[in-house]
Please model this.
Amino acid sequence: MLKHSFLTGLLCFLSIEGLYAQEKKEEPSTYIKANALFLPIGVLNAGIEHQIKDKITIQGDIFISPWKSFAGHEFQYYSLSVEGRYYFDEAFKHWYIGANLSAASFVLQKWNYWSDSIYVNANNQGLKKSNLYQKGFSYLLGITAGYQFKLGENWNMDVYATVGTSQDFYKGYDRTTGLRYDPAHKYNKSGEILPYRGGIMISYKLK
Model:
């Protein structure tokens, strides 16, 4: 009788422990993260990634570049991004793909304006491209691919890149006069396919 009671009690204890372990295992995890590539140049790219299913997470992040001039070029860029991710193994582990949606505001000089070649405006004026910059906003939609792996008990590394479409609305200015160089009355509009996010995120597990 005593032996039977002991076995019954042991089975009940193991069942309770099993249920607790299962609940604990299924509790969603959350990581905070920062992009190690941009911090050394004074640019903040930080986010939070939260698990919503075994292989699915959602991430929100910000990108803040406050530089009025960086290496001689305007580089003020502020963006918000939300991304859904699907991991082929399990959440926060190994390869994943994701869908990204971002919005950005900027004052910057596009890479194709870095040279001293001449831009001819609608009034047949020749302007040096390196004196011209753009101010406006963008909507971006893209696909992310990445690989995340464990560095320590609560630390991960996330290597990723995003490619997609950028729909830009901007006004062009000549920094020598402060006047617009472009012929549009409101915003210029452009759309292009380009890589617009990427880096190496160092992540810390909150729970």
User: Anything to note?
Assistant: Residues 17-24 have pLDDT under 50 and may be disordered. The first strand starts at residue 30 and ends at 35.
